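Revision sheet: structure tokens.
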Amino acid sequence: MWAYESVFYQIYPLGFCGAPFENDGVQEHRILKVTDWIGHIKKLGANAIYFSPLFESDTHGYNTRDYRRVDCRLGTNEDFAKVCRKLHAEGIRVVLDGVFNHVGRGFGPFMDVVKNREHSRYLNWFHINLGGNSNYNDGLWYEGWEGNYDLVKLNLQNPEVVEYLLESVRYWVEAFDIDGLRLDVAYCLDENFVRRLRSFCDSLKPDFFLVGEMLHGDYNRLMNDAMLHSATNYECYKGLYSSFNSMNLFEIVHSLLRQFGPENWTLYRGKHLLAFVDNHDVTRIASNLTNEKHLPLIYALMFGMPGIPCVYYGSEWGAKAHKQEGDPALRACFEAPQENVLTEWIAKLAAAKKQSDALNYGGFRSVVLTNRQCIFERKTDKERVLVAINADDVPYTAHFDAGCGRAVDLIEGGMHDFGGGSELPPYSAFFWQCE
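Predicted:
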């Protein structure tokens, strides 16, 4: 599938475009800003964009009002269709956020229930108790997502709700020619709904990609041949920054062995999880690392490990923001993209990843591992690549059986000779393609 050979770029549209937090009802054609960034996105090496929510909502996008209308703060449906056409013309795929677990209080069917109560034809679209009350004093109780009553939980066991959502997906494909969906809080979704969605999407468009937001537990519960193609790799998200901050690369390598290693009990061998070092919900990686010299290395490790790498807009040049500053800080508006040494480095990593069969499809085997250094193998029948990281501030010479005498450096070019040991300069990373 195309997604397994791609590099993703995540945009949170409402923040990216500088839209007001509250839906003010004023239509502005802000989403067209994306077209000004296409050159930067291509130069970075991304060939797929994951857009966080962009349909009409109460505030932050995850409290949907209308699944078939682009948020007026961003523009019109035709504006976004124009953006998608330009992205596709440049070879960039489009994946949207599918927020199917809950809606906003401004969602028409829910407003109808509040108004008409037992007489509403939408009463069973939600989990309603007419004998209770809500935090908003509606005179009825309803289930909100994880106790957040601005997020009204949908009844995904109601066939009418399922059909409405599937027809919304059909509309997105017809109107925008989208290539996939990221399912918000996938871990909360009814499993039968996910199976139905997969079957529907398979029939709608070949190679339609489904990735689910999974935080914990066994990702295979939803990531399998009948449900999702991929899941967010939160286990390794934590392991990546924690390993560098504690100078203990055993942590991330242990997770990778558990997920993708050569043993029979490996959980996700042959599967393709979405890998990331930050996103719209967490502290930006440049603020999360205690040593800024580890910033290029954590990206190298993310691009070198099994999975589909995803870069969050702004982080490619080292933008900073802490979670405790609030979501608006994490979802900033930048006037224009910036380019520096980090963006150039990520572009090289992206180019190496996309051209490498081993980095796209290879297994995982640990070759050298210390607290501050690691070398691991990615291998397929076609290619063998060794990923080497030195997170220390002093050189390190690795003595190991490379299985070949020389290798091509996929990141910087040139040849590497394994004879006499492999010296890793301070704060360095290599992708060695064995001859």
